[in-house]
């Protein structure tokens, strides 16, 4: 797989693949556009003030930067990130996003900066810049990209502790490099891809629980499309129906508990929201949102603007986390009913025959713990936590970068929930003598060893193995919006 970076067509799937080391090439016509924008920016700066090129930044916007190397000074002064470093795949994805944004042709950055970033994207993990996760507030990843800039200049060590050969960057490259939310967008893209795949896996595991609990298919039937006219709900209902249709028996209840009965209406919003988040991310990685924007008119000009502000992204991420809460709650609900629903005909806690056995009782606790983490990730919407900095000049930051960091944390907890339901559903199918067919039979065959021991025993290995099964399943699941 070779991805062509053009500045116009980078997708979430591409970003995910680039983070994993996919090959790429850079479109030659787009590179020529970068050079034209750089020449245009120099021409404009020769006749009028241009923010960050002839002036200071922030509240210093009306002052001339008197440093002999103002661009280098700007990178040094902003290189104050903190917290854990981003993992290598995230750094590589962010650098690829930054390359693609420069190729959109509105930054005024030099070809030297573009080529330095291209080289960094293709570098081994140990030669990538060390970039710290914290420090951005939703108006550009200033601290993170300043660290990248100093690494390209050979002033900061790379991941392996070595200094690279200094890139011949122009002083005017500093602000165009920093005027981006590339790392925030990389986290959003990876979180979107991970949650979209997990949401696909969750539907199959729900189907296992449906069979084990003798669910009522009416809630997933054709009427769902009419009474819940949303794409995600229709997809969720159709997917579960397709997976279980050969294995349905007389339902246990006239209508099921919410974790089964309302699954299409509650899981559907997550499927829909992943599509919305994907579209927002893809719009932002394929635009020249740098401030100021270089407009290659005749004569060329620049526009000072607020396109770097990530309000759209913050709202899309927050909505995704809220949608995840509902889907996750249905999983916790089904785990509880698998363990304790008397009408299922299954032993309490799916325990063995010895009186007083705890069986899988503790899985309900694990599910509650994971739910607490997901609720916490979604409960304080970052898109409303605006802040004012730089003497009130920058008086409305969205904290999008905090929201995107929560996506990965929430995805980890969601993965754990799915794994816990998988263990409980496979045990319930086994104890109830229920058989499944098709794709579900293949899944159960891969998981039967997780519940081979019926008497009370150390459950940690089974849960860990179930997480591995889910991870493998996710890694082989195509993105639903490819």
Automatic annotation (TrEMBL):
By what name is this protein known? Answer: Aromatic amino acid ammonia-lyase
Query: What Gene3D superfamilies does the database record attribute to this sequence?
Result: Fumarase/aspartase (Central domain), Fumarase/aspartase (N-terminal domain)
Keywords attached to this Swiss-Prot or TrEMBL record, sorted alphabetically, are: Lyase
Nucleotide-binding as UniProt keyword: no
Q: Which Pfam families match?
A: Lyase_aromatic
Please provide, alphabetically and separated by semicolons, the GO molecular function terms listed in this UniProt record: lyase activity
Q: Which domain of life is it from?
A: Bacteria
What EC number(s) has UniProt assigned to this enzyme?
Answer: 4.3.1.-
The signal peptide annotation in the UniProt record is: none
């Amino acid at each position: 797989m070779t991805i062509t970076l053009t500045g116009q067509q980078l997708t979430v799937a591409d970003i995910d693949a680039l983070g994993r080391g996919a090959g790429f090439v850079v479109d030659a016509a787009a590179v020529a556009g970068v050079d034209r924008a750089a020449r245009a920016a120099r021409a404009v700066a020769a006749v009028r003030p241009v923010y960050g090129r002839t002036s200071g930044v922030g509240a210093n916007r009306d002052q001339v930067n008197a440093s002999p190397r103002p661009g280098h000074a700007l990178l040094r002064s902003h290189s104050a990130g903190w917290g854990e470093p981003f993992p290598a795949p995230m750094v590589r994805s962010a650098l690829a996003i930054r390359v693609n944004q420069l190729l959109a042709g509105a930054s005024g950055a030099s070809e030297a900066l573009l080529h330095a970033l291209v080289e960094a994207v293709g570098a081994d993990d140990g030669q990538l810049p060390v970039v710290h996760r914290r420090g951005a507030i939703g108006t550009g990843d200033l601290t993170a990209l300043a660290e990248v800039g100093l690494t390209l200049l050979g002033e900061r060590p790379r991941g392996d502790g070595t200094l690279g050969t200094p890139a011949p960057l122009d002083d005017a490259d500093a602000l165009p490099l920093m005027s981006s939310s590339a790392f925030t967008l990389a986290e959003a893209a990876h979180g979107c891809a991970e949650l979209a795949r997990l949401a696909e896996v969750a539907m199959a595991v729900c189907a296992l629980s449906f069979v084990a609990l003798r669910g009522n298919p009416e809630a997933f039937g054709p009427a769902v499309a009419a009474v819940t006219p949303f794409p995600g709900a229709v997809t969720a209902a159709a997917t579960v129906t397709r997976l279980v249709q050969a294995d349905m028996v007389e339902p246990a209840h006239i209508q099921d508990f919410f974790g089964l009965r309302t699954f299409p209406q509650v899981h559907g919003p997550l499927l829909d929201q992943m599509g919305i988040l994907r579209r927002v991310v893809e719009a932002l990685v394929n635009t020249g949102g740098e401030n100021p924007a270089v407009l290659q008119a005749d004569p060329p000009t620049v526009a000072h603007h607020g396109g770097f502000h990530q309000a759209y992204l913050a709202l899309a991420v927050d909505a995704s986390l809220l949608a995840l809460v509902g889907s996750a709650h249905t999983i916790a609900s089904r785990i509880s009913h698998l363990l304790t629903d008397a009408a299922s005909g299954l032993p309490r806690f799916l325990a063995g025959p010895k009186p007083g056995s705890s069986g899988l009782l503790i899985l309900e606790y694990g599910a509650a713990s994971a739910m607490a983490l997901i609720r916490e990730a979604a409960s304080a919407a970052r898109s409303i936590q605006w802040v004012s900095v730089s003497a009130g000049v920058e008086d409305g930051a969205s904290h999008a970068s905090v929201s995107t960091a929560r996506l990965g944390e929430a995805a980890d907890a969601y993965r754990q929930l799915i794994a816990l339901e998988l263990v409980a559903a496979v045990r319930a199918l086994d104890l109830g003598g229920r058989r499944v067919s098709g794709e579900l039979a293949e899944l159960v065959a891969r998981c039967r060893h997780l519940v081979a021991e019926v008497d009370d025993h150390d459950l940690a290995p089974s849960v860990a193995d179930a997480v591995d099964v889910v991870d493998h399943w996710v890694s082989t699941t195509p993105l639903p919006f490819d």
